Amino acid sequence: MFELTKEHEDFRAVVRDFAEREIAPNVAQWDRDAYFPVDLVPTMGDLGLFGLVVPEEFGGHRDDDAGPFTALCVAIEELGRVDQSIGITLSAGVGLGINPILTYGSAEQKERWLPDLVAGRALAGFGLTEPEAGSDAGATRTRATREGEEWVINGAKAFITNSGTAITTVNTVTARTGTNPDGSAQISAIMVPNGTPGFTVEPAYHKLGWHISDTHGLTFADCRVPAGNLLGEEGRGFKQFLKTLDDGRIAISALALGLSRACLEQATAYAKTRTAFGRPIGVNQGVSFQLADLATMVEASRVLVYKAAWLKDEHDLGRRRVTEVKQAAAIGKLYATEAAVTATRIATQIFGGNGFMEEFPVARFYRDAKILEIGEGTSEVQKMVIARHLGLPQG
User: Fold this and answer.
1) Is 219 helix (H, G, I), strand (E, B) or coil?
2) Which one of the listed residues 149, 338, 376, 380 is annotated catalytic?
3) Do 132 and 254 belong together in one domain?
């Protein structure tokens, strides 16, 4: 059965120390300034955070016997406990930047892009969502037309993480490249280096939360890239994206777990020291019962997150079916993210008026939480996936 090893827990301690020493003292100011700390990324690379699932030949240190994906979730959880934006930078940097290239890239593409991405010298984005195509990714309107030895891309993408930093080198985008025999869109994935003529990274969004995270819209106007920039097989981009999302859902669950833990820890500490009517507020059942609920949600989230991560590692070794991973990923994502949103509401309520003040981290937690129920597949999409795996009739 799944469990975290001593190596995982030792690694957790290293990441926690890094997060508390390098991130925690600065994060409130970074959040106020909507500042992306680009210099932090190479430091994360030096810790090996971007290389946990990458083989040594590309600069990583993947160890299949040590649960590499589980280790990545441990790192995301610990970063997310201090700040969600830094956590998603790692999650997207690996899951959406590195993994598609590692899984579907040619030898040349891997050799060109992976070493810098793994080292934290570069970041990569993955352009899937569009202004008119979110949960319905099959409705992609961006088109790529083959002209000789080039792809000509036209269209737009929305809400793309890590897409426009000073060290972002490439964005992989999905685009229509034809029509399948059944009339559906043939979707392929194509790598577009930043700075390519016709490719514009739009100004950063003004977001409710995740202020530190780099997020942009992307537009393509007769953007030409070599035919060799096709990632994987032509027409297989949609299926590639679905596999990418399965892994990403587990990672987002770990991010949510980190947020719920932070809420529990900070609200419990506050309840021990904040007094009202001459005694600590934690004496009151109205507070203590809420903390008991929060502790239960944290523990349940932890079990679901790491069961899904364990299944992912086991599947990579050929020991589990992909359907098991998909179901566990959807269940973990649904529960852990909705629990995190509830956790921030509880923590803010316990902090009372102080919880509404930006001087206290729970205010940032409250803002950061909601996107967890939306990104990497909404809660409604997770319920569709879960129900489908129950064998219910399909309409």
Assistant:
1) strand
2) 376
3) no
Contacts of 14 (CB under 8 A, 6+ apart): 47
Beta-bridge mates of residue 152: 145, 224
Last residue of a domain, one of 104, 122, 140: 122
Is the pLDDT at 55 greater than 70? The verdict is: yes
Mean pLDDT to the nearest integer, 201-224: 98
Residue given tokens 């529960």 in the structure block: 335
pTM of the model: 0.97
Distance CA 394, CA 380 (A): 16
Read off the pLDDT of residues 162-206 as tens digits, 9 standing for 90 and up. Answer: 999 999 999 999 999 999 888 889 999 999 999 999 999 999 999
Start-to-end Cα distance in the chain = 36
Q: DSSP states of 152-172 as a string?
A: EEEEEEEEEETSSSTTEEEEE
| 130 counts as catalytic | no
**Counting Cβ atoms within 10 Å, is residue 359 exposed (0-12), middle (13-18) or buried (19+)?**
exposed
How far apart CA 184 and CA 108 sit, in angstroms, is 31
Instruction: Evaluate whether 151 touches 225 at the Cβ level (below 8 Å).
Output: yes
Which residue type does 63 have? D
Rounded alpha-carbon distances, angstroms, from residue 259 to 17, 95, 127, 302? 17, 19, 26, 12
Distances (CA, A) of 342 to 190, 222, 345, 352, 357: 38, 45, 5, 15, 18
Range of the domain at 263: 238-389
